[in-house]
Design a protein that fits this description.
Layout lengths: L4 E5 L9 H15 L5 E5 L5 H10 L2 E4 L22 H17 L3 E4 L1 H9 L23 E6 L4 H6 L4 E5 L15 E7 L6 E7 L6 E4 L14 H17 L8
Parallel strand pairs: 1-2, 1-3, 3-4, 4-9
Antiparallel strand pairs: 5-6, 5-7, 7-8, 8-9
């Protein structure tokens, strides 16, 4: 069997205002999905076209990580609260997601990644949610709030069917019920000053592993242990994909 390949889309650390912090954040995603026999690589917006093409053609799992806001033009809006937009990363992840959908590759989105799944699937976004974000990562204790997991969803099964969990909150944007893209269903909700927000989503097609979570479960110091089961389910889906795929030659 070819070695399962999980690809994580990230921000290029040298483009961050805090390069060391960015590297630490990226490392947490790698740690979360690293397993014996699985190859985990990151790719950022500076990758050339040849690298992108081969990477996306050979991946068995795609994890879209957290980061800055997606440009609202991607969901038909003008700027109205979005911050620190990364249009080059938007393009990278739109290409990665389209390839994953075409090839049937399992996809997991975290924070920005959840929002990107929704946007690239035809959904929208509330550009600013008042009072929903605490101190930035590494700058103080995480803000937290209750997460209501929808009974009967695959997320509920992956997490061990919890009624509710207390999760971290590092985001200032959100998905309302009317923003959810066709083909996706809400798997978790959280209250906010703007009303209920979709903070977990998954494909309506039970045969496809496309899932997103708004919190940051890779930050284990502020995350319930149940989320390890979500990462395990994603890796297992990537391994299953690898068992069925043909070998893709490396670029010269």
């Amino acid at each position: 069997m070819p070695s399962p390949r999980i690809v994580i889309t990230v921000q290029a650390p040298f483009r961050s205002s805090d390069p060391d912090g960015s590297r630490r954040k990226n490392a947490r995603y790698v740690e979360a999905v690293s397993r014996d026999g699985v190859t985990v690589t990151t790719i950022d917006e500076t990758a050339d076209e040849a690298t992108r093409s081969w990477t996306f053609a050979s991946m068995d799992g795609l994890l879209m990580s957290g980061g800055a806001d997606v440009h609202p033009a991607r969901y038909g809006e003008t700027l109205d609260g979005s911050l620190d937009i990364e249009t080059e990363r938007d393009r990278l992840e739109a290409e990665a997601f389209a390839t994953a959908v075409r090839r049937g590759v399992p996809v997991l989105g975290i924070c920005r990644g959840l929002q990107a799944i929704n946007i690239f699937s035809g959904g929208g976004l509330l550009q600013d949610v008042p009072g929903h974000m605490g101190a930035s990562y590494g700058k103080g204790p995480a803000a937290t709030h209750p997460l209501q997991v929808v009974i009967g969803t695959r997320l509920a099964g992956w997490l061990g069917d919890p009624a509710a969990l207390e999760v971290n909150s590092y985001h200032h944007q959100g998905i309302r019920a009317g923003d959810l893209a066709p083909g996706l269903v809400a798997s978790a909700w959280a209250d906010s000053e703007a009303g209920p927000l979709v903070e977990g989503l998954e494909s309506a097609d039970a045969g496809r592993f496309i899932a997103g979570i708004q919190c940051h479960p890779e930050r284990t110091e502020s995350t319930p242990a149940a989320f390890e089961r979500l990462f395990a389910a994603f890796v297992a889906a990537a391994v299953a994909h690898a068992e069925a795929r043909p070998t893709v030659a490396s670029p010269r």
